[in-house]
Amino acid sequence: MDAPAQQALSFRILSLNTHKGFTVFNRRFVLHELREAVRGVGADIVFLQEVIGSHQEHSTRYENWPRVSQYEFLADTIWKDFAYGRNAVYPGGDHGNALLSKFPILSYRNLDVSQRGPERRGLLHCVLKHPGSGQDIHSICVHLGLRESHRREQLRLMCRLIDELPPDAPLLVAGDFNDWRQRAHDLLHRCSSLREVFIEAMGRAARSFPVRWPLLSLDRIYVRNVRVLRPEVLHRRPWAHLSDHAALTAEIQV
C-alpha cells in the first residue's frame, strides 16, 4: 500500500544573498542579526551567496567581526555540515557561495563559471544524504554574473553540470541569478527539466530586489523530482534591514 501523502518526508530550504553581512550601501555590519533571522526560519538547508571566507581589514575594523568565517559563524551549532565555494580572491580576503545543512554533506565541489573580466562566479554543488529516506539530494548554490552574455554561458555550464547528475535524484538549485530579464526559466526547463517554485505556485517569479521595494526577480529556487509547498519571499522586518536582497524559502517534499 502506498504511504499517505501526509507522511511524505519534508524539509525547509532558504536562499539569501548575504551582501557580505552588511546592510544596503554597506552602512552597518549586521551579521549577528542576520544569524538570528536565518535561525528563526528553521531551514534544514541554507543557500548563501556573497558570504565572506576571510577579510583581514574588516576583522580589525569591526569589533564584533567573527573569529571564524562568516559561513561557520552563521552555521554555529544549528547546521553541523557546511561547504564553501571560494569565488573571488583579493588582497586580504575572499568571498563566495556557501551551503549550510542539517543533513550530512557527502561531497561537494565548486565549479568556476567566471567569464572574461573581473567578476568571479561559481556553482557550489553538494550531495546531501536525507536521514529519513536515505536518498541523495543534489543541491547547487548559484551566483551568476551581471552581464547577460556571461549569464548565458554560465547557464549553459550549469546545464552541463546537471546532465552529469542522476536523472531521478532530488535536485535543488537556488541563489542569485541576476536574471532581471527572466531568460533562465525556459532555458533551464528545456535543458534540465527544472521548475521554478514561485512560477509554479504563483504564476510568476518572486520579486526580491531591492529588498525594501522589490521590483526585480533576481533570486530563484528551481527544483526537479520533488514537491514544493508554500514558497515565500522574506522582505519585511527584520529582513528588510539585513541585506539588499530578500530571502526566499520553501518547503520541499521527497
From TrEMBL:
<dbReference type="Pfam" id="PF03372">
    <property type="entry name" value="Exo_endo_phos"/>
</dbReference>
<feature type="domain" description="Endonuclease/exonuclease/phosphatase">
    <location>
        <begin position="30"/>
        <end position="245"/>
    </location>
</feature>
<dbReference type="GO" id="GO:0006506">
    <property type="term" value="P:GPI anchor biosynthetic process"/>
</dbReference>
<dbReference type="InterPro" id="IPR036691">
    <property type="entry name" value="Endo/exonu/phosph_ase_sf"/>
</dbReference>
<protein>
    <recommendedName>
        <fullName>Endonuclease/exonuclease/phosphatase domain-containing protein</fullName>
    </recommendedName>
</protein>
<dbReference type="GO" id="GO:0003824">
    <property type="term" value="F:catalytic activity"/>
</dbReference>
<dbReference type="InterPro" id="IPR051916">
    <property type="entry name" value="GPI-anchor_lipid_remodeler"/>
</dbReference>
<dbReference type="InterPro" id="IPR005135">
    <property type="entry name" value="Endo/exonuclease/phosphatase"/>
</dbReference>
<dbReference type="GO" id="GO:0016020">
    <property type="term" value="C:membrane"/>
</dbReference>
